[in-house]
Design goal:
Layout lengths: L7 E6 L7 H11 L3 E6 L9 H8 L16 H8 L2 E7 L1 H9 L5 H8 L3 E6 L3 H5 L1 H12 L3 E2 L3 E4 L5 E5 L3 H11 L9 E6 L4 E2 L5 E2 L6 H12 L3 E6 L11 E4 L3 H11 L5 E4 L6 E3 L18 E3 L3 H6 L6 E8 L3 H12 L3 E6 H4 L4 E8 L2 E9 H16 L3
Parallel strand pairs: 1-2, 1-3, 3-4, 4-5, 8-11, 8-13, 11-12, 13-16, 16-17
Antiparallel strand pairs: 6-7, 9-10, 14-15, 17-18, 18-19
Helix pairs in contact: 1-2, 1-8, 3-5, 4-7, 8-9, 9-14
C-alpha cells in the first residue's frame, strides 16, 4: 500500500475568532509528521500573531503576495509543493471569495492557482451560516470539489447557539491525516462497537467497567482514513467521535445489541471492540434502593453475545473480535477465536490497556500470532486495519 512519504500542507488562516484554534491544529499536524506552512490573511493577524504560528511550525508565516521569495510567486510555488491547502477557520467572506474566484490577497490567490486539494473549515455566526448566500457558496464549492469540514453546532463567541462553530482541532487534524491514506476501503461498510456498557441496578446505580472507548474510537478513525463508511455503536464515553462516522449512542448491552441488529445489514467488516458487560441485573428498580443494615442480593443474568450473533449470521461480515484478559492471554484469546469462529482476534492485557493512551496487541488469525509492539492507540488501529485489508486480499 503506497502512501505519501513527504506530507506537506498549507494551513490558511482567515479573520475569525476561531483563528486561535489554528495554533493547536498546527501543533497536532506536526505531531503527525506533516510539514505545515502557514499563510494568513491580514484580518487573521488581528486575532492571532504570525509569530505564534512561526514558533510552532518553524517556518516564516506568509501574509503578503510579496513574500520571502521576492518574485511575487508564492501563490504559485506554495500550491505546487503542498499536498493540500487547509483553510481553518474559513470565514463567510473568504468562502464567498472562493466560490466566485476572487483573488485579492496571497491566500485567495493561492487557492485559485492551486493544483492540489482544498479543504475548508467554516466558522461563523449561525445566521451567517444559514443565510441563502452562504449556502449557495458552499454548494458551489462542493460542486467544484472542495472538501467542506463542518461546521459544528454549539455555543458561539457571540453567545448564540447553533450551526457555525468550527470543528475542534482534533477533528480537523483527523480529517487532514485521512487525506494522506490510500482509500483502499472506499465502498466498504465498517461497523464497530466501542466503550463500556452500563447495566442499571436502580435509578442511580449500575454495573459497568473501566473501558475508556479509546481503542474503538481510534479504529473508527483508522477505517475512515481508508475511505470506509463507518458506523460506530458506542457505549457511554467522554470521547469526541471522529468527524464523518455515523454515531449510534447506547448505554446497556441490550441497547447495543439492538443497535447492531438494526444497522448490521450490508456491513462488510464488523469489529467488536466494546467491553460489553457479561451480566445484568435480573430486576431493576425505577427508584433508588435505600440503604439498610440488611444484605442486598442481586440476581445477575447473562447479556447477549453480540459478536457471536454477528459471526453466526447466514452471510456474516468479516468479524474481528477483541479479548482483554488479566492472565493466560494467549490461551483465552485462542479459545475465544475458536469458539466464535472468527477470522481475526486482537488481544491485550486489560491492566496495561484500559484507560491508557497506548497499547500492545497480539493478533490471532489462521496463520498464527502477530505482535503489534506497544504504541499509541491510533497507530495500533491503523496497523490492525492494514492487517484486516491483508487478510481480505484488498490491494
Amino acid at each position: 500500500m503506497e502512501q505519501i512519504k513527504t506530507k506537506s500542507i498549507v494551513l490558511g488562516i482567515t479573520g475569525g475568532i476561531a483563528a486561535y484554534k489554528a495554533a493547536e491544529l498546527a501543533r497536532m499536524l506536526i505531531k503527525q509528521d506533516i510539514v505545515v506552512q502557514v499563510a494568513m490573511t491580514d484580518a487573521a493577524c488581528h486575532f492571532i500573531t504570525p509569530l505564534t504560528l512561526q514558533a510552532l511550525t518553524g517556518k516564516p508565516v506568509l501574509t503578503s503576495s510579496w513574500g520571502e521569495s521576492g518574485n511575487g510567486m508564492d501563490h504559485i510555488n506554495l500550491s505546487r509543493s503542498a499536498n493540500m491547502i487547509v483553510i481553518a477557520p474559513a470565514t463567510a467572506d473568504f468562502i464567498a471569495k472562493l466560490a466566485h474566484g476572487l483573488a485579492d490577497d496571497l491566500l485567495s490567490n493561492m487557492c485559485l492557482a492551486r493544483n492540489c486539494s482544498l479543504l475548508i473549515a467554516p466558522a461563523m455566526n449561525r445566521q451567517m451560516w444559514e443565510s441563502a448566500a452562504t449556502q449557495r457558496n458552499i454548494k458551489q464549492l462542493m460542486a467544484d470539489g472542495v472538501i467542506v469540514l463542518g461546521p459544528d453546532s454549539g455555543v458561539q463567541a457571540c453567545g448564540e447557539e447553533g450551526l457555525g462553530r468550527m470543528l475542534e482541532p482534533a477533528q480537523l487534524a483527523q480529517a487532514v491525516v485521512a487525506q494522506f491514506q490510500p482509500k483502499l476501503l472506499t465502498g466498504t461498510r465498517v461497523m464497530l462497537t466501542a466503550g463500556p456498557t452500563y447495566e442499571a441496578i436502580d435509578a442511580v446505580r449500575g454495573i459497568t467497567n473501566r473501558s475508556s472507548g479509546k481503542m474503538g474510537y481510534a479504529i473508527a478513525q483508522a477505517a475512515l482514513e481508508l475511505g470506509a463508511q463507518v458506523t460506530l455503536v458506542s457505549g457511554p464515553t467522554v470521547l469526541l467521535a471522529p468527524h464523518g462516522v455515523e454515531l449510534v449512542q447506547v448505554n446497556s448491552a441490550q441497547e447495543m445489541f439492538e443497535a447492531v441488529k438494526t444497522h448490521v445489514a450490508g456491513t462488510d467488516i464488523f469489529i467488536g471492540v466494546a467491553a460489553v458487560a457479561d451480566y445484568r441485573a435480573a430486576e431493576t428498580s425505577t427508584q433508588k434502593i435505600k440503604k439498610s443494615t440488611s444484605n442486598l442480593t442481586l440476581v445477575l443474568v447473562p447479556n447477549p453475545d453480540i459478536l457471536a450473533y454477528v459471526a453466526a449470521l447466514p452471510k456474516p461480515p468479516f468479524c474481528v473480535g477483541f479479548a482483554a484478559e488479566t492472565e493466560n492471554l494467549k490461551t483465552y484469546a485462542t479459545q475465544k477465536r475458536t469458539a466464535k469462529k472468527l477470522p481475526l482476534l486482537a488481544a491485550n492485557l486489560a491492566q496495561q490497556a484500559i484507560g491508557a493512551d497506548d497499547n500492545e496487541l497480539i493478533l490471532f488469525d489462521d496463520a498464527g500470532e502477530h505482535l503489534l509492539p506497544r504504541a499509541d492507540k491510533l497507530t495500533q488501529a491503523r496497523a490492525l486495519m492494514n492487517h484486516i485489508i491483508k487478510l481480505k486480499g484488498i490491494t
